[in-house]
Amino acid sequence: MSSGQEIHKYLKLNKIGQGSLAEVFMAKDRIIKKLFAMKLSIQSNIEESNKLVVIREAKILKTLNHQNIIKLLDYSDSAEQSIVLSRHPSSVLSIIEFCPCSLSQLIVHPEFQFEVTEIKTIVWQLILGLNYIHEKKIFHTDLRPSNILMNSKGVVKLSDFGLATYLNSTPMKQDWTFLSPAMWYAPPEELLGKGNYKVPEDTWRLGNTFFSVCIIPEMWRKKPIMEGWNRIDQLVRIFELCGSMHLASWPEVVNYEFFDRNVLPLNCRRNILPHLGPIINDEEILEMIDEMLVISPHFRRPLRKTLDWLHFISRVDYQPWVLRPMLERYSNCTGVDFPRLDLLDDDH
């Protein structure tokens, strides 16, 4: 990967997405005519902390090389090159591989449904990617359907590492005093103000994402199953579904910044299996979600165990090609011509 010397070779095309810190555009390599995604932080009054988030994402991605992690091709915080591409000198930009759809787009489409085999294949690839970054002591901290991408060959990619952090480091604080999509997938310990980050937090997010993939296509409400309005409301919804926390199995929770036994419900029963049982006709999926969405991080199913369990129990070929029929169905629903997009992918 170059360090911005070749940014000028990319032609910025149409806008394809936007987050809280940056906009995403289609970009074409002027020489080889291949398409990529260009991420630009273009706010005229961009805060230094926001700029550092974009820079940190690029630095983390630069250290990663895995089929199920979005690939960074180029990056620049040069004022001169920023002016050329974004018309503002404070912009930070990165060039990443292009993926034509996200998991959230598949979930919310009213005419689209997942097959059980496809769900397991998606989760298998996600766990491979998560296990890889965890071995490098990196944690995503913002895993949710909109940050899970897919290329035209069915390869699932973890993306958006702007909030990623390292083992035992303090993650960036997020404002969860109001409605926030990121909050809907956050684990209880993060909502309660735990100071550092470890593996179980990403496991909860994966379970919550998996939970949405399973449930939403079969329910009339096409939205997250735990959709709180603020930090406390989100915790209440978690406890109502997953059961209240027990201090005997999680004693350190009393030291967390936002723990308050007078506000949080302490007598909720666990309702995951009763809630899911009538909807999901697959014992493996039910067991996996039940062991991922556990209130105490000490008793959450480890990702490595889930990977081994999927491998030995399921008779499923988890190769990306399994998802091609799914992409064809999505193509029929949306008009996106995935076969035409083969040239967008690299050898992955």
How much helix, percentage-wise, in residues? 25-40%
Q: How many strands?
A: 10
Give, in spatial order, the strands making up the sheet with the most strands: 1-2-3-5-4
What is the string of helix and strand elements? EEEHEHEEHHEEEEHHHHHHH
Distance between the termini: 17 Å
Helix/strand-derived class?
alpha+beta
Separate helix tally: 11
Q: If you compute it from the alpha carbons, what radius of gyration comes out, rounded to the nearest whole angstrom? A: 20 Å
Strand content: 5-15%
How does the major sheet shape up? 5 strands, antiparallel
Globally, the shape reads globular
Overall residue-averaged pLDDT value: 77
Low-confidence stretches: 215-221, 342-348
Task: Provide an overview of this structure.
One of its GO terms (cellular component) is nucleus. The structure is a single chain. The protein is an alpha+beta fold and 348 residues long. It has helices at residues 48-62, 79-86, 103-108, 116-135, 188-191, 199-215, 231-242, 272-276, 283-292, 303-313, 324-334, and strands at residues 10-18, 23-29, 35-41, 72-76, 92-96, 101-102, 138-139, 148-150, 156-158, 165-166. Helix 4 runs antiparallel to helix 6 (199-215). The longest helix has 20 residues, at 116-135.
How would you summarize what this structure contains?
Its main location: nucleus. InterPro entries: CDK (IPR050108), Kinase-like_dom_sf (IPR011009), Prot_kinase_dom (IPR000719), Tyr_kinase_AS (IPR008266). With 348 residues, the chain is an alpha+beta fold.
